[in-house]
Amino acid sequence: MYSARNQHASAARAGAAGGMKRARNEEADDEEGEEGAPAVVEADGPAVTRSVLSSSARQALSALPSCEMYEKSYMHRDAVTHIVVTPSDFVVTASRDGQLKFWKKMQTGIEFIKHFKAHLTPFAGLACSTDGGLLASTAADKGLKVFDVLSFDMINWLKLDYTPGVCEWISGPQAARAVLAVADADAPDIRLYDGVSAEGEVLSTVKVHSAPALVMRLNPKFDAVISADARGVIEYWSPSGEHSLPKGLSFRYKTETHLYEVAKCKAKPTSLCVSADGKHFALTASDLKVRIFSFLSGNTRRTYDDGPDALHELQKTGDDAYRLEAFDFGRRMAVEREYRAAAGAPPSNVLFDETGAFVIYASVVGIKVIALETSTLVRLLGKVENTERFTHLALFQGRARISATMISSGGKITQDDDPTLLCCAFKKSRFFLFSTREPMEPEGDDAVGRDVFNEKPSKEDLQLAQREAKGPLPKMACINTSYGEVHVKLFPDECPKTVENFSTHARNGYYDGVLFHRVIKGFMVQTGDPLGDGTGGTSIWGHEFEDEFHRSLRHDRPYTLSMANAGPNTNGSQFFVTTAPTTWLDNKHTVFGRVVQGTDVVQGIEKVKTDKTDRPLADIKIISIVCMEN
């Protein structure tokens, strides 16, 4: 039996080890910043201002995606965790169920090519060679697979005797063999393989870490590999020979650098990216800071804090263009806490644009584009996409690659360029494309919207599509009873399914003439059962549906509108309005509205005489319910 009373009756209730000696190039000077200025360490967090950019930076910014809304999204069958854009103009996406998809970048947008069931477990690493010809993937199933990107075929499959972590191609396009570095997920060793050889022979083992390497990137301009381990220690090593230190560094000891900074903060690295000119690399870590390093000096040039304190400060003092409504910000922070606590969630990464003038990374408020020369937030993508927490990013900047020299000389960007930012999102089986074009409005019954259903949609996708097709859910309702009108505010953003069920029943006349079948003074009034005895009623889908609890919606005050149920996830059509705080019902019944007018009507119903089963002696009915958008 549906009951909110049963609960009422029972309510009583590193530092890293020492500095490694470094070979010093006596002729090498410290890295210089923009406009010939010395490199500096910035204070935490980008200023949210509109400082003037140089002409070359403005030109580089025009070659990046600019629209605040994503243009298209495409599906996998499970949450998308990795995206790679290859130098050969292909896109590869990977999902938590081990599926791999190849896409071709067209003049505008992308086109699906081929699908592989690559692994039995989620991906640990996905890496493309510097020439864009080879792709490698690793996973906890101990498989290492290599694909020919241009022919879309799997060309090698090694079964390893250890659990692999991240991987990276560490040989250039002119090298005699394609060397792939694979980190051990449980040990500090990094093993090197000939990626196209089926023998599986370990060419050499790199032993520069004292903990498993979590991130690894080749710096081809300086023939060096940068890796960082679970203790936060950053190492440089040569991809060939004895894997010694690269030549030309401007420091003798690591203690002269900031390469221990992440370890000192007791943080773990989560992503690593190298600029196109090799002079800088960016690293994100579990302390939610984005650090920009000079490669030659090993010192931080910029540090951007994206932690909770910095975000709250931005809400108070930042530019209005980048602030969120208080309610929206609170909801996003709740999602952020869930994201940070989720096991196996894809970490947010950081990217450089092709000129090295900007860094791009996803945050709570959207995807940030920061100009390094002024350390300012110059663009914020996806701020309006408040249902997505974007995570892993990949950037395509078109066939006509823009060099720094061309930009400085005022070279014109051709119309064929189609800069596109591709993004994963937390718990989403889609990936999203931001471009310079706003999404097209679908026209006609056969029109395809921006969310492409290239896979058989799940129940959740179908329900979301149906809701969007019907237009926005109502935010207000007037319950007209035989005792008077009760106006309620609804919460469609927090509990869309519950509001959809209630408003659809109301629109269809399902509640017309239904009795208030249970009234308990000092507790609540209950209705919504067409049988009138508390045993009937169903949802608009013909079956029970799940609870929608939200941390901001509690039974902490009277006149709360909530769903009656017979246990977890058994919602149908019955609902009740409380007449006192009933906090013991929190996380047991879905709160989906509050009375904003007509509390006297609720009080009048509450005071009627009832029998031993709490049924009113005189009938009190719902005459009709009218829902409104505002």
UniProtKB/TrEMBL annotation:
Pfam family, one: WD40
UniProt-listed Enzyme Commission number(s): 5.2.1.8
Enzyme class: isomerase
Keyword annotations: Isomerase, Repeat, Rotamase, WD repeat
GO cellular component: nucleus
Keyword set includes Ligase: no
Domain PPIase cyclophilin-type: 473-627
Chemical reaction(s) catalysed: [protein]-peptidylproline (omega=180) = [protein]-peptidylproline (omega=0)
Annotated GO biological process: protein folding
Protein's name in the database: peptidylprolyl isomerase
Organism: Coccolithus braarudii
